[in-house]
Amino acid sequence: DGGITQSPKYLFRKEGQNVTLSCEQNLNHDAMYWYRQDPGQGLRLIYYSQIVNDFQKGDIAEGYSVSREKKESFPLTVTSAQKNPTAFYLCASSVPGTGNQPQHFGDGTRLSIL
Amino acid sequence: GQQVMQIPQYQHVQEGEDFTTYCNSSTTLSNIQWYKQRPGGHPVFLIQLVKSGEVKKQKRLTFQFGEAKKNSSLHITATQTTDVGTYFCADPNTGNQFYFGTGTSLTVIP
Predict the structure, then answer these.
(1) Closest to A102 (Cβ–Cβ): which among B30, B48, B100?
(2) Residues of chain A with pLDDT under 70
(3) pLDDT tens sequence across B39-76
(4) Of A49, B20, B29, B90, which one is least surrounded by beta carbons within 10 A?
(5) Which residues contact B14 (CB under 8 A, 6 or more apart)?
(6) Cβ separation of B97 and A48 shorter than 8 Å?
């Protein structure tokens, strides 16, 4: 079955540590997205990528970094500069272009600070 | 950036009662999408509305796009416990970004 796989499901970060969240898709989608969701809140866009080797900042990119070396993969690094990283992180993909395509989401990664 | 507001933020209903969530945009939308997120889960696409004044139905769910394409609503008739979750509207068209609404969390009391 085609889909999006996020790993790990749960992640704990120590002070001053960088951690990387994995997102892999086999839907052959060009566009991929990372969102942050805080308890009882909506989805806020961190980074998005419309094509391999290109990505743009979303509304809350500070303290995060991404890469897009392969179409299937869009890992997110939560750096030590992100002072409040505890949240639910969701990766999504879609067919880019006209904005008429839905987003498909992974199961998410819950990140907590130790 | 784009603002997509939803009201109410929370709604508790008795099973069998109706439920409505409203989505309002600060700008005119080309189209609007609706998603449902079950507790502990991820958002799942429900439907897309494109035309001014469009109304679409999925069983007990009725989706409407405003005439001015700046607002939308989702109405659930005779709620069931399976309807529990958070419902989001989304603007998929502003600068290649998706802007999700703030969401309405629905609790259904058996």
Answers:
(1) B48
(2) 1-2, 96-99
(3) 999 999 999 999 999 999 999 999 999 999 999 999 99
(4) B20
(5) B108, B109
(6) yes
